[in-house]
Design goal:
Blueprint: H1 4-9, H2 17-24, H3 33-53, H4 65-100, H5 107-148, H6 154-179, H7 185-216
Helix pairs in contact: 3-4, 3-5, 3-6, 4-5, 5-6, 5-7, 6-7
Length: 217
């Protein structure tokens, strides 16, 4: 069970950048790579939003005003989701860690431990798949800002897509490592199918964004 104070400490959205980075470079088990990736995802969403902000209200781009306003709204939601996922990643790591620490001296203890590992691993896989899916949504928004938004902001659009893709790849590794604790073959197969789909779409979207950015530089 994660205690109240520990949960407060893992509310990374309330940390300064300096304190978060210092916590990463320490003996603390959390935050880790998954949380750092989700923070990058939050920044990716915010950068797409910034590009939309810098487009909205400008006469030159009045034809896409409504679309940019929609992107601003969507990115605010996504950045909050990503910040929550940073905390959730730490929660999931703690849950899995606690399951592996359970005693296994007797058959009954070993069975309870195996059940706990299975449950915690499934929960962690679902959490990381949420991240890989959210990254697709961010990259789609980044693509729109690059192709239809303020052309002075195309490099920020590329930064959004690159950070989102990096976040997605880290989350993908977390899916794969936690699948090692899942014995349910149906769950494993579905998770692998969904992950493959997310990564393929992420790869395509990043390629599309960077191609468009290169053409505009």
């Amino acid at each position: 069970m994660i205690q109240g104070n520990d949960r407060m400490e893992m509310d990374f959205a309330k940390h300064s950048i300096e304190s978060f980075v210092q916590d990463l470079n320490s003996t603390k088990p959390m935050p880790g790579g998954g949380s750092a990736a989700a923070i990058c995802g939050a920044m990716a969403a915010a950068l797409a939003g910034m590009s939309a902000h810098m487009t909205a209200g400008k006469k030159k781009y009045e034809a896409v005003e409504e679309k940019m306003q929609e992107i601003i709204t969507a990115t605010k939601i996504l950045q909050e989701e990503m910040l929550a996922m940073a905390r959730e990643d730490a929660d999931m790591y703690s849950l899995v860690l606690q399951a592996y620490k359970l005693p296994k001296a007797t058959e009954e203890e070993a069975a309870q431990r195996a059940k706990a590992i299975e449950g915690a691993s499934k929960t962690a896989v679902v959490a990381s798949l949420k991240v890989t899916g959210a990254c697709i949504r961010i990259m789609k928004l980044a693509y729109t800002t690059v192709t239809e938004g303020n052309q002075m902001m195309v490099t920020d659009g590329s930064a959004s897509a690159l950070l989102a893709r990096a976040c997605q790849q880290v989350a993908a590794y977390n899916v794969r490592i936690n699948l090692g604790g899942v014995k349910d073959k149906t769950v494993v197969a579905e998770a692998e199918r969904l992950l493959k789909s997310h990564l393929a779409e992420g790869d395509r979207l990043l390629e599309d964004v960077l191609r468009e950015v290169e053409a505009r530089l």
